[in-house]
Amino acid sequence: MVHLPIYYQVKDRPCMVVGGGEVATRKAELLLRRAARVIVVAPRISFRLRSLSETGVITHVGREFKPDDLREAWLAFAATDDPEINVTVARHARRLGVPVNVADDPASCTFIMPSIIERAPVQIAVSTGGASPVLARLLRARLETLIPAAYGRLAAIMAEFRDRARLRFDDPTARRRFWERILQGPIAEMLFAGRERAAITALTREFDAESPGPKLVGEVYLVGAGPGDPDLLTFRALRLMQQADVVLYDRLVAAAVLDLVRKDAERIYVGKESSRHSVPQHEIHRKLIELARQGQRVLRLKGGDPFIFGRGGEEIDTLSAEGIPFQVVPGITAAAGCACYAGIPLTHRDYAQSCVFVTGHLKEGSLDLNWDALVQPRQTIAVYMGLQGLALLCQGLLSHGMAAETPVALIQQGTTPSQRVIIGNLNSMPSHTQDESIRAPLMVIVGEVVRLHEKLAWFNSAGRSADTGSTGTADHTGIIEKV
Length: 483
Ligand code: SAH
What we know:
The chain folds into four domains: 14-113, Rossmann fold (3-Layer(aba) Sandwich); 117-124 and 133-215, no CATH class; 219-332, Cobalt-precorrin-4 Transmethylase, domain 1 (3-Layer(aba) Sandwich); 335-482, Tetrapyrrole methylase, C-terminal domain (Methyltransferase, Cobalt-precorrin-4 Transmethylase, Domain 2, 2-Layer Sandwich), CATH 3.30.950.10. The chain is α/β, with parallel strands linked by helices. It has helices spanning 22-32, 47-54, 83-96, 133-146, 151-168, 172-184, 186-192, 196-208, 235-243, 255-258, 281-293, 312-321, 334-341, 371-374, 390-399, 429-432, 453-456; strands at residues 14-18, 37-41, 59-61, 75-78, 100-102, 115-119, 122-126, 219-224, 246-249, 266-269, 297-302, 326-329, 354-359, 379-384, 407-412, 420-425, 442-446, 480-482. Mean pLDDT is 89; it is low at 465-478. 35% of the residues are buried. The chain contains 17 helices and 18 strands. Helices cover 34% and strands 18% of the residues. It starts with 13 loop residues before the first strand and ends with a strand. The strands form four sheets. It has a six-stranded mixed sheet, with helices on one face. A five-stranded parallel sheet has the order 3-2-1-4-5, sandwiched between helices. The protein has a five-stranded parallel sheet with strand order 10-9-11-8-12, sandwiched between helices. The structure holds S-adenosyl-L-homocysteine (SAH). The site of S-adenosyl-L-homocysteine has 23 residues, from helix 13 and strand 17. Residues 227-228, 252, 302-305, 308-310, 333-334, 338, 384-385, 411, 413-415, 440-443 line the site of S-adenosyl-L-homocysteine.
């Protein structure tokens, strides 16, 4: 990186635009929106520039550029359609120490223009350092959709209340918390919904309250981190991850997801291996309560969805009994994520009208499943924690009448760069479980829909080499092994 992103004050400053065409017009308007004093130098100018000049909004110098034009300039845009003139402008500007931007000529620029998302007074500038203006524009388009139009109004109202907040809260942490609560709470929502007056009344009331400011109460966010790919997080998950003071996370939470937690948040590993409980559940409950009571915002980050084989229900049950505020954010559960990334639709009009999620966790060496409910036509079975009991699962389904050719997919580390998919059937799969390279986390999907992966697999797992030493074959979609 060689560019420093800064916001340059141009209000009432003389800013030069050399050129009078479309690009020059855009630059002039960009400057005008920031209250700059715009001087356009060009023998001919666009209709728009002419009307701005006639109403005295800009100054038009109707001739070719002369080096002296730059003497007073605060910055300059060279935007003529003649590259030679542009280079000349740039050369003189550099000599005079005037920041200069040349349209379509990064080498001549001393500053480049970012793509801008405008929510005045909020501005977001996106730059690829000149590498790809198209990429910057695409990023900008994405951000435009993420940021409510009323953000600008929100910022403006916050600015009006800033001094009052400073008087009200001496402690910067208390002040930050206060604003975070307002910005993420019902008052901001009122504003986004266009109820500006109600929002201002509510905010005023926050300051009028007799009490010495809200007590710092902790809170627990029970958040689903999805199956691994960080792109599968929800916006809300990400927002809460960014504001938590401390995070308790599981073994299943991918490192790439954990990286998105606020950098200075304390990280506590409470992972459990299916056979070995490294931190007992009651200990996790105790920790959550203790941290929240200290006034901390505690992020309880769980793989997949917190309410699907995640014991999330138990955790918030305890919190609720202790009167600790909490919120729950759903995540993409492993069955949905793995199936999708393996090109297996869990339901399909022609193959499956229902899908059941079961745990294949062994209890005292056996599987406690409702076999008759599982062995149903046109039904997909998604089995969590099914690695150890895989052979028993296949045998159980077979002995309860499921056809031996029923396809089975094993998806290991689904949605991550190490994703591996093994396809077989109820007959072939059990012998394959001896393969020591098959490891947790593993999702097992049983049903006719598995056949669709042949056509629908799309995810290229880049991290795993095709040579896994197995009997299977790898195809264009990365690793798909057949057994
Ligand atoms: N709450 C989680 C499930 C926890 S149980 C969710 O909703 O996804 C843990 C099991 O989930 C693992 O044993 C495995 O069967 C499955 N699992 C989780 N992440 C996985 C992944 N990336 N790939 C394959 N299976 C996964």
